[in-house]
Each structure stands twice: as C-alpha cells, then as structure tokens.
Design a protein that fits this description.
Order of helices and strands: EEEEEEEEE
Pfam families: Cupin_2
Number of strands: 9
Protein name: Cupin domain protein
Structural class: mainly beta
Number of helices: 0
Strand order of the largest sheet: 1-2-9-4-7
GO molecular function: metal ion binding
CATH class: Mainly Beta
Keywords: Metal-binding
Number of domains: 1
Oligomer: single chain
Largest sheet: 5 strands, antiparallel
Shape: globular
Radius of gyration: 13 Å
CATH topology: Jelly Rolls
CATH superfamily: Jelly Rolls
CATH architecture: Sandwich
Amino acid sequence: MRIEKIADKMVYLDNTFTKRVLFNEEKVLAFVLNLKSGQELPPHQHEESDLVLHVIAGKGELTIDGKVNSIEVGDAIHCAGEEMFSLKNNGNENMSCFVVIAPRPSPKAYADEFGDK
C-alpha cells in the first residue's frame, strides 16, 4: 500500500499544463492534471483504456467527441477509450483534476509526467 498527497501534485506552470503521477501500477494509472487559466490538454484518445476524471479545483470545458461540457469542482466524468477527449481551463483560477485510467495504457508516454519539475 502507498499513500500520496494529492496537494503535492498540484503544480502549475505558466508555459504549459502539468501532469503529476500518483500511481503507475500494472493495472491502473492515476495522476493529477493541472492547468492554469487558458491552458488546454489537446484532443486525444485512450484506445483500450477508460478514463475517470474528478475535478478537484477550478472549472473548465471538457470536450468529448466534439460535444463541449462545462465542468467544475465536484464533477466526475467517465470517458470511454475510443472517445476523443480534450480539456481546457476557461476559468480565472487554477484547475486540477484527479484522473484514473484503467487498464493502464500500454504506450509508455501515458505514464510519463509532463511539465518541468
């Protein structure tokens, strides 16, 4: 068993969104996505894996297969692997999302952290 502090993974950079991995296990990947106002995660798919996203700070727009949805703190979203997914912080505050992907995607890049440390 491991316990991680989500607050330690809420890191924001001016030049890009950040991704900080909490757990990279054989069957599941969990991380925190952090976006400053105006930043966005480009459209992509998770192929064979489903994604669950929980907004833990801020608000924004989640686009799934071209449909734009407003999301805010407390919202939980499920996205199937074949759905095209993007995220944008269109609010004035920092935005963070706790994300779980299962099964863990096979491309190694999905488990990499993003944004300078």
